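Anyone have tokens for GNAT superfamily N-acetyltransferase? Sequence:
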Amino acid sequence: MITIGRLTPDDRTAWRELFAGYNAFYGRPEVPEALFDRAWTEFQADTRMHALGAKADGKLVGITHFLVHPSTTAADVCYLQDLFTAPEARGKGVARALIAAVADWARERECSRVYWSTHETNATARALYDKVADNRGFILYQIALQPPR
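Reply: yep, here.
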């Protein structure tokens, strides 16, 4: 049985491992510990950035991070920024349950939609996403900015 809930201080070590796994999956460089600390502090405050965890048999097996922002054409929207399931828990409904929990959370706060992106080569995730959401065909662009010196 999968349970979904807010991350607690006791979840920090397992969350850190899952989040590192998420970043490794996407080939990102090693994340400085200060950024893990910042994210964790934000998730515990639960005001600007939010996180939920999925547990199976009391073990954290999935995480999601999300935030709300204004929209120019609708009520606020919820951006599901990160979603990761432990390899041993994949195919067991963890990601689907996390997405549903974020949608419920956003609905309770009267957001107009939940959206996210994934890499085009992430076929496993896309197979699920195509079942639970609409692919509206948008392509993501970004400009990496250097912090001010």
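The two ends are 49 Å apart (CA to CA).
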